[in-house]
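Re: your question from the hallway

Yes, I did run it. Sequences:
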Amino acid sequence: MAQIALPSIDYSVILQLVIIFGSATALLIVDLFVPAGRKRITALLAFAVTVVALVAGQYSTAGTTLAGAVSYGPMSQLVNIIILAATAISILLASDALPKQGIERGETYILMLLASGGMLLLSQGSSVVMLFLGLELLSIALYVLTAIAFPRLSSEEAGLKYLIIGAFGAGFLVFGIALTFGATGYLTLSEIATHIPTSGIERGYFWVGVTLMLIGFGYKVSLVPFHMWTPDVYQGAPTPITAFMSVGSKVAGFVAIVSILQILGTELLVLRPILIGVSIATMAVGSIVAISQTSIKRMLAYSSISHAGFVMLGVLSGDANGLQAAIFYLAAYTITNLAAFAVVMLLEANDGSDMSIADLTGLWQRHPWLSVVMSLALLSLAGVPPTAGFFAKFLIITAVWQSGLAWLAVAAAVASAIGAFFYVRCMLQMYSGDSETSEPTRIPLTSMIAMIVVTVAIIVVGLAPWTITSALALAQ
Amino acid sequence: MLLTPRQATGMQRSIAGLVSIINLVLAVIVCVSLAPTAGYQMVEQQTWLPAMGLHYAVGVDGISVWLVILATLMTPLAIFAARQQTDGNQRAFYALLLLLASSLIGAFVATDLLLFYVFFELTLIPTALLIALYGVGERRAAATKFFVYPFVGSVFLLVSIAGLVYVNWQQTGVMTFDSVALSAAIANGTLKIDENLERLLFAGFFIAFAIKTPIWPFHTWMPQAQAATPDNGSVDIAGILVKIGAYGFIRFAIPFFPHASAWAAPAVAILAVISIIYSGIIAFGQRDMKVLLSYATISHLGFVMLGIFSQTAEGMSGAILTMINSGITTGALFLIVGILARQPGGRIADNFSGAWLSAPRLGSLALVAVFASIGVPGLNGFIGEFLALQGAWVSPHIGFTFVVFAVLGIIVSAAYLLRMYRTVFMGEVSVTSAVPEASKSELLVLGLLVVAMLVIGLYPQVVLGTMQPSIAALVQSLTQGATQP
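Structure:
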């Protein structure tokens, strides 16, 4: 029997992945020895791992390894920073919010680490197989996390829903990969790009394959019409998990979509009308349906759908400006959404029951600072200056103009105007009326730190956008 | 501001008042030291986002300096009016007022388009919060409408800004948001915008500024918001200032799109005239004095729009003067209504009668303010409206037909303001409606405002002199731009 030849591995390229996966496995064992009731130790260890991985990003070397399957470059460096920072903040928030609801499980934090490893793989993967692997790692960890509030029914239901819909998405992706491989004979993205069939049945297979792959990731980032699961899962999952998946899987999913679209090069124009339709539908459905929501988590779910449409606008323009704008948007969306969910986590009832927008009434009197954080988050989601969300929206609109789609910029403006309505209505709810409960909410230290970080980030990015744009310009 | 202790409300008010008065003094110093030339002075520039040509660029010229003075004058006035504010968080109240003032000043001095946009939007947040936190009645609905309606307009402004900058970049290869550079490029013909595109871009600017101004039919947010503001008038006084819309027309929309604005001038003039007459008729039916005054403001703004779109030096000067006048006179009237609203009668004019007998000083000052608002010669309102109408008359775009209808509006405004005055101050005094005389400090502040009305009315050159060079340059560049093919 012939020896199986293992490709050479350059560990400095996959340093962050090694750290995350290695420590996650080690932590699983460590967690056995952490006594129940003190699972915060696991959380802090997991947090430390993400911080180490963040720092390790500086020492990784750019390049490609594992026979072209994984690569690391300036763009993935930046995306990894977003993913790891989001994970770190989510872990901090979860370590306060989950025990409050009686969910005291060390494996939560380890699963979050594994999910973030999957996200990193999506950002670094340069072969379709790696993209699939990343998606599955990410999804399976999130299925479990969604249902982790066992035996709470809503959480289990959400987990099952997510699993079934996610399996659909994965099925599309695998089938797409198979067709693409069949049509081109290659698995790495760069080789597929140079071997796009120009005619015959292979070309048909190729297009169907690419489309199916996009659908697979379209589920993950909840583009219309693959968004149906989003509100239910966001509502049912424990809030820290919702926060984590609303930002992490969206960032990772979009990076994968960008990788796939980059295969196409100039042939992107063929798909463009479809992509435009999808992004308009996504923005419209997200912002219009959000108006009628009464649950705050469902409202944020629809808002996340509408934001996916905005990111898609940047992605589909296909040029460097659009891509920069999309990444900026994702970064801004990440910090903003984390801030919004952090407030929800602190305010929601201890039994984890769903919180309605009306529960925000009078928050200003109960807890002025929380309402300031929430207002900033909502204003940033609406795209009002001087917040991060404003510049994100501005860059997207500029990028869309520059790719010659002026009318699409107007459509985006209309969608964001509709969005502003429910964000502002929700914001003003906090400043009017008297609250029913008068007891002030106690803010634990770790949540406080996490919240201060994201709130400051919203303002800093809003006032000094060059902090991100200069890094983006380098990454090009 | 937020650092001051929660209980020490007096101290908070003093600090807020002090800060705002220092601002006013600084603004006057700036105004006096302004050299009588066109163009921006005291320019300050910092790179903001170099890749996109964004700058933090501010400067003042003869036009913006008066609006800055107005903003800094209204802030202490609003703080003064707010001393009756008893409920709610005082710190936040004054902090929001000062935030509103600084974003207004920011919008008036910004020379970078995007920076202007940022301040333009920023004014919404504190005002909406002031209404939601300290308002009365349907305050949340009013605050939401107050925020969302103008916001909808301004997203179109954002798209148009992006478009304009992009077109400029395509043609000249320079990525800039500098309004001076952009309007210069249009005036000297280096930047030529396709006719249809120009109209579309203009439409984006127009929607945003018309809602903000507001002119009919985009005005519906205003009376509702005004009805929900606190009785003492503090927020209204600050609110009068949210007239950056008219400023935006003068500074940005018209210089950027000379052809489109000439093309649209008759239509805008029709809207302006409808605004004047319609708001007059509605105001006539109002019993709530604050809502009445808000319609009076809308009608003033109709004159402003007529003046601006006449695109003549007279019209533009008149428009700016009317903006300043509207701030001073309506501000004074809001202050008076705030004083009256302390009585059980509240803000409803019919609940009062014979106030003159018990409060003659207040009554006489109110009479001057009402006359100024109507536009009686010798007071400030007259000069502004006269110039605006004169400009409209001689303007090639508008003509005298509009002026005739606008004058009808003046008559209507005389009718409803005088009727309000008569109901409140004349007649027999009854036991329930007796109004005590205003306090000395209130009379002093009102007196100062009345002096300002007289000075501007008798010697308008005080204001006009400073703005003349800037206006002349503006009109010149307009005619230059309009003659470019």
